[in-house]
Amino acid sequence: MAKAATIDRFKRGETVKNLDALPGVPAGTRGRVLLVDGFYWTRYRVLFENGVDIGSIDGSMLARPKQFEEALARREAAAKAEEAQAETGGDGGGAAAGGGEAKTVNGVSVPGHLLERSKRARERLGAA
Fold it and tell me: Is the overall model pTM greater than 0.70, yes or no?
C-alpha cells in the first residue's frame, strides 16, 4: 500500500480539531478520535472537549491541531479556485447533467439527481 494514501488518516486516540461548525460544536474545537470506521470511506467518531460526541465525521472535516491553520488556508484556496473556474465557465456542463443542485450533509455530498429521484418517489407514494 502506498504511503501517500495514509497521510491524512487519523488514528484512534489522536487529538483533532474540526474545520467546520458541527451541531453543538463550534469550528476549531479540539476533540479525541474514539473510533475509526470504514473501508472505502473512512469515518471518525470524535468526542469533543465540550462533551459532544459525534460519529460518522468525514476526515476532510478534521485536522491535526498543528495543521489546523494550514488546512483552513488550503480550503480557502480551493474555494477561490473553484469560484474562479465557475466564473470563467469551466464547469463543462456538469451541473446540467447532474439533474439539480447537490447538497452536503455531514460532510458528504449528495448528488442532485439522487435528491430528485427521492422527491419523485415520495410524490408517487403520496408522502410529500
Answer: no
